[in-house]
Amino acid sequence: SAELCLLPALATLLPPLSGPGGPGPAEVGLGALPAELRAAVRAMVGDLDALFTALGLREESFAVGALSRVVAAELASYTPARNRRRTATNKASVIFVDRTLDLAGAVGHHGDNLAEKILSVLPKLPGHKTDVMVNMVELTALQTPDETCSIIAPGCLAQPNDPAAKVLWESFMNLKQKEAVMEARRHLVEAASRENLPIKMSMGEVTPEQLSSYIQLFRNNLKALENHCGLLQLMLATVQTLKHPQTSKWDNFLAFERLLLQTIGESEMPSVLNQLLPMIKSYNERTKDDYTCEDFLVLLVYIYSVVGEIESGKELDAAEEEVKKALVKAICDEPEPSPLLQKIT
């Protein structure tokens, strides 16, 4: 979008976690990092310099976190960057922040944002970090129960050649979900009206079923399909996200996170973990509303990120041991572990 540029090539760059045997935050310089991470930092500095050159920027860098300090220092002493800063005309402040300092933000469910939900629940477009596959079967005469119908190429979110779709995507990113969905309906009604399709405008709350029925109007009209292809891909992404089981779970996550924040304020970490324990269920015991192994890993990352420093002791050790046992059992009982669980095990 106009305000946000993602650099997917750098998606795997994470600061080393300080732990037993790891470098302490004070002593991290480029030389103290593992060779692979050193190479990644140098590549990042080169990429950023190329980006700033294209934008004609003379940057002033600020850093929050150990790895960010290394990146900022490398950029400051990088010879091509020094030359660029002498001649560049536009000034900018650049703030580097270690991703591990905001894990609670990355795993929390506090965003009431349609774009975030679409990117979270729909399957990734193969080879892409920042785009998703949108099932386009609904726009065809082929009716198949197969979720992953591979005969029809998937749609995606990036629609650089469709001005209406670009405007709509901006609203998905910048508005609250309810407003974004209403905006989606408005765009769809306008597109259908322009094509003289028999659309019945209805007021009130927007439902995925209502959007689906509007999308169906385009189905047998090739000209209309061609004219609004980009917009229709975003509409289908919206419908598929709103109907996705993970979206209904989003609110459960949010409620549980809020409850945890209250509980952590009032009691110690062991009692929070003991609350979590009965909810960890193996594959055979789970219903569709229960948390999966991955959901628990996300919740645990959230809990430990929010709590900060923890007083260790016998009670905590015992509670953690119980949670570990339950999680290991649940992971081992998965009939088809997801790629993430396979990677972890």
Automatic annotation (TrEMBL):
One GO BP annotation of this record: vesicle-mediated transport
Signal peptide location: 1-19
Keyword Cell division: no
Coiled-coil ranges per UniProt: none
Superkingdom classification of source: Eukaryota
Assigned keywords, A-Z: Signal
Cell division keyword on record: no
Protein name: SCFD2 protein
Protein species of origin: Menura novaehollandiae
